[in-house]
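Tokens in:
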């Protein structure tokens, strides 16, 4: 503790003007006042427990800024227990309505450290919030892995923002998820195999990103899936035959990737498919003989230049 305190005093002495302008919250009156450098030096000598009791009244949006003051305050405000206590003091952040989290909360969530992200997911779960709908908000950051602690989430819609990084495999823990819209961002890396666990998923829109690798076979387990948008990425490899199990699929967008090989014969089972775009890939234009003129998907693909000229032998 002594070293942390001395580090705090050194920080004050090195830049007293900066720290002297900090807005400090006094509890429980919740009055704001400016503190001088000597006063801040005294504050930094307070026990960690007392610092946490004081700062829990500060709005979570400001706590992250206070963490930058010195090592001592950073340590005091970086525990999961403090994050939970701080968010508990501001319950309006958890929900914007009966079932939706606020846009401001989502913006903060993407900027918060992992301790706050985990605490927020837990509170949202307890509050029975089910929707995170914040498209077209210019949100910046990565998709938090902590969302895996929010199994009640049914709608995750963060399309057309500035999200980056890889899709966390923790998304596969969202057992109740029905809508996943992350299209129109700058996401990279592979599509997690774990997304195949989302048995209730109806819409999977990951188009217009920078995703690479092959389409996971596990997506064929999404028996409720109605729309699959993976177009305008950097996907490669071959088309998984397992997608032929998607009996409820109505819209399939895979164009403008680097997918190669043949259309799998198993895809002839997609009886409810209404729209399919596979152009601007490296696919062989010859369809298996099982795609007779009576199959709906065969008719759709023939309008895109595919033709039934390949006999497949088992």
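Residues out:
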């Amino acid at each position: 503790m002594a070293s942390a305190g001395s580090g705090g005093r050194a920080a004050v002495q090195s830049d007293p003007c900066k720290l002297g302008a900090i807005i400090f919250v006094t509890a429980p009156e919740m009055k704001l006042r400016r503190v001088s450098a000597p006063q801040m030096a005294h504050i930094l000598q307070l026990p960690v427990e007392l610092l946490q009791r004081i700062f829990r009244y500060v709005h979570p949006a400001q706590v992250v800024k206070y963490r930058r003051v010195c090592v001592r305050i950073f340590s005091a405000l970086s525990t999961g227990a403090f994050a939970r206590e701080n968010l508990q003091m501001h319950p309006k952040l958890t929900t914007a309505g009966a079932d939706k989290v606020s846009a401001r909360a989502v913006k903060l969530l993407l900027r918060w450290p992992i301790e706050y992200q985990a605490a927020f997911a837990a509170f949202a779960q307890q509050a029975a919030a089910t929707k995170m709908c914040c498209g077209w908000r210019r949100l910046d950051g990565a998709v938090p892995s902590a969302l895996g602690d929010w199994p009640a989430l049914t709608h995750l819609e963060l399309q057309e923002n500035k999200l980056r990084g890889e899709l966390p495999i923790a998304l596969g823990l969202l057992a109740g998820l029905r809508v996943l819209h992350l299209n129109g961002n700058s996401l990279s890396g592979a599509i997690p195999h774990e997304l195949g666990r989302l048995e209730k998923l109806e819409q999977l829109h990951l188009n217009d990103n920078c995703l690479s690798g092959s389409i996971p076979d596990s997506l064929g387990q999404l028996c409720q899936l109605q729309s699959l948008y993976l177009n305008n990425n950097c996907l490669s490899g071959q088309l998984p035959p397992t997608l032929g199990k998607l009996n409820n699929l109505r819209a399939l967008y895979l164009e403008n990737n680097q997918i190669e090989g043949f259309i799998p014969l198993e895809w002839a089972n997609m009886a409810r498919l209404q729209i399919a775009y596979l152009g601007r890939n490296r696919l062989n234009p010859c369809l298996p003989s099982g795609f007779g003129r009576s199959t709906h998907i065969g008719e759709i693909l023939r309008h895109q230049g595919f033709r039934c000229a390949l006999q497949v032998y088992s």
